[in-house]
Design goal:
Elements: H1 4-21, H2 29-56, H3 63-89, H4 96-119, E1 123-127, E2 132-136, H5 138-160, H6 167-189, H7 196-212, H8 227-239, E3 245-250, H9 261-276, E4 281-285, E5 290-295, H10 298-314, E6 327-331, H11 340-353, E7 362-365, H12 367-388, E8 392-401, E9 406-417, E10 423-424, H13 430-435, H14 439-456, H15 459-462, E11 466-470, H16 473-477, H17 481-491, E12 499-504, H18 505-510, H19 512-525, E13 528-534, H20 541-546, E14 551-554, H21 556-564, H22 566-581, E15 585-588, H23 594-603, E16 607-608, E17 617-618, H24 619-632
Helix pairs in contact: 1-2, 1-7, 2-3, 2-7, 3-4, 3-5, 4-5, 5-6, 6-7, 11-12, 14-17, 17-19, 21-22
Length: 634
Amino acid sequence: MNIGTQCCGLAILFFVLFSYVRQRKLGLKNEKTYLILLFITMASVIFDILSVIVIYNKDNLPIVLVNIVAKAYLISLILLGVNSLFYIIGDLRVTVDDFYKTMCLYFIWTGIFIFAIAVLPIDYVVDKDRNIVFCAGPSLIATYLCVASYLIQALHINFKAKNYINQETRKSIYYWMGMWIASAVVQVLSERFLIVGFACSMGLLFIYIKFENPDLNMDKITGLFNQRAFITYVNQMIQTKQEYYIVAIAFDFRNDSSVEQSVFDSAIMEAVNYINAKKNITVFINGQDEILVVYKNLKLLREYGLELEERFEKGWGTNNAVILSPYIICIKETRLLKRPEDILTCIRYLRVNNIDKTDSHFVYADEKMIYDMYEQHRKVKLIVDSMDHDRIEVFYQPIFSTYEQFFISAEALVRIRDEKGKIVPPSEFVEVAEKNGLIIQLGEIVFRKVCQFLKNHSPDELGIRYIEVNLSMIQCEYVKLADDYIAIMQQYDIDPKWINFEITESASTVSKSNMLKNIERLRTYGVHFSLDDFGTGHSNLNYIVDMPVNIVKFDKEMINSYFENGKAKYVMEAAMHMIQGMNLKIVSEGIEDESQYNEMYALGINYIQGYYFSKPLPQDEFIQYLKNVNAKGV
């Protein structure tokens, strides 16, 4: 009798079952399906072994017993096939109703074939000399047809569901199904090798190692479920439309810097273990400093929330000496979040954008915050897509010299064109680009386009002297800024005197050291600098003294205040005289009509920028505008 491979397969299944049941699990639908698969596969292998034994000894046993055992084995293969299909479907994002409808259809199909196997005749082939034992006949054919239909359906679902199942999972399912098919083909072609049961066992071992090993869901340091487990768990909650609420607790804030790090870490672990010991909640760790608590009803959230607040006030560690003040983010409106990944994105968004706005270290994620998060995500995608598909454009707003009475320069202003060709203003995306680490790349694209523009149309040809290019605070912090921008100017053969970089006051306060190094390197190369947005933020004449700039730009808000507020008028006039006393030039931004222009001219402002002369123009319109006005005079 050839039952060695089946016995090996059975040993593998017992090992997997022992490992699986002793470990902590999330209680997911697929975990239950996998456990059922394990038991059915074990039953199938046991019936496979028993069928070989009874067929081998069929002459000494009642034929009814032989038929029952043999057909039980065939039926177990069908049950294994349909439950394997259920396991694969469980990875899809389908509703509970759709899942159960699908199950009903497959159970009906399975029932038809089980009935066919029960009533159809079955034959047996026994060659004791060659050690060959197997069954044959219509029952076996029905089994192969049914299992084949499940395999085809599984492969079809796996292929069609590429948008719902990740690439690694789909590839593993192909391997799993491949084991089934290969073993069946080998067994059909060679009667001596009864390896279907062994192949099924190896398939279950493969799935265990790749996906169902509970250790994959555990953080080894804290013993909590990890981020992978959180995504899987919440995904099931979303699919099954269950009620759930999320509380994120971030331990990245130290209230007392005198506490040693080891003591602080120990206090955090004590707090984590306290939270994890609570019943009817599930706790996950997300990164090194954040835990996520999932509550299944609002009552639990309120009850444990109050209890947790009181416990944190008492302190942790020896003699409750360590006071932890974690950031806490509560998300009740989870129905607005479409995917588990969106919850993690929302938490990151709130930590970056909202935590600092509250003294209590607590943020309740309302509908507006969640909407803002999705809006920022949309804008990030817009920026990335625009950079990838060359939809970044540079508009130019002319700058007029009041002394020389013609346009001497222009400010380069970034614009994005969306997929429909509509222009997106910078107020919609520049701040988002800065917060999400995209401004360095975006700024470089803009500077390259300016250099390309100057290479194709020299300032002498346009009747201007230079182009002003904005540098944000984050760009100023970038240590390789000067080297990268000099390399770009060299690549496009740009005379550095054609470039004037605009920096903001906020940049000079946040990263003065890095910025001064970049400025010195670029000034040495030959470019000039302006101080942009003077009159907003941290306005201080000391910055102008300290900063190596040639031009100071009065912000539009300051100009508006000049015309609307008597006190502001004296302040701006005094600032102007001091700035010009340092031999610096002044640009007034936001000049919109003739009366404003005349007053700025009378005041002695050097340069005027605003809609009075022109709005920001696309490159070709800007070129034509300069040709018209500079040729005729203004």
